[in-house]
Amino acid sequence: MQTEIRIIKGMMLLPPAPDKCQLCATKHDQREPHNKDSLYYQCWFYERHGRYPTWEDAMRHCARPLREAWERELKLKGAWEK
Ligand SMILES: [Zn+2]
Predict the structure, then answer these.
(1) What is the distance in A from the centroid of ligand 1 to the CA of 3?
(2) 58 domain-assigned
(3) C-alpha R_g of the chain
(4) Ramachandran region, residue 58 (left: φ > 0; alpha: ψ -120 to 50; beta: rest)
(5) 63 within domain boundaries
(6) What DSSP string runs through 2-67?
(7) Is residue 31 domain-resident?
C-alpha cells in the first residue's frame, strides 16, 4: 500500500488509517457526523473552504432526524455553532 502524505497549509499529515473515516480520521458510523474537532478534518476542510468546519458542516451528510438530535444535544451543552 502506498502512503500519500498530504501537505495542508505547510503541515504534513499522514492519511487516516484504513479503518477510520477518511475525512476526519476518527472511527465512526458513516451515517453519523464527522469529528469536527479532529485536526485532520479541520485541515482538510480549511484547505477546501478557507475556513474551519462547524458542527453543521460536520453533519451535513447526515439524515435530518440525526442532525436535529445532534443539534439539540450540542445546544444543550453550549457547543452548537452554525
Ligand atoms: Zn468522519
Answers:
(1) 19
(2) yes
(3) 14
(4) alpha
(5) yes
(6) PPPPEEETTEEEPPPPTTS-TTTSS---TTSPP-TT-HHHHHHHHHHHSS---HHHHTTTS-HHHH
(7) yes
Neighbours of ion ligand 1 (CB under 5 A): 21, 23-24, 34
Residue ranges in 11-63 assigned as alpha helix (H): 39-49, 55-58
Per-residue pLDDT of the chain (82 residues; tens, 9 = 90+): 456 666 666 677 888 999 999 999 999 999 999 999 999 999 889 989 999 999 999 999 999 999 999 999 999 999 887 6
In a domain, 23, yes or no: yes
Q: For the chain, what is the domain count?
A: 1
Determine the Cα–Cα distance for residues 34 and 24; give it in Å rounded to an integer: 6
**How many Å lie between the centroid of ligand 1 and the Cα of residue 30?**
7
- How many angstroms is it from 55 CA to the middle of ligand 1? 12
For residue 34, the CA-to-ligand 1 centroid distance in Å is 4
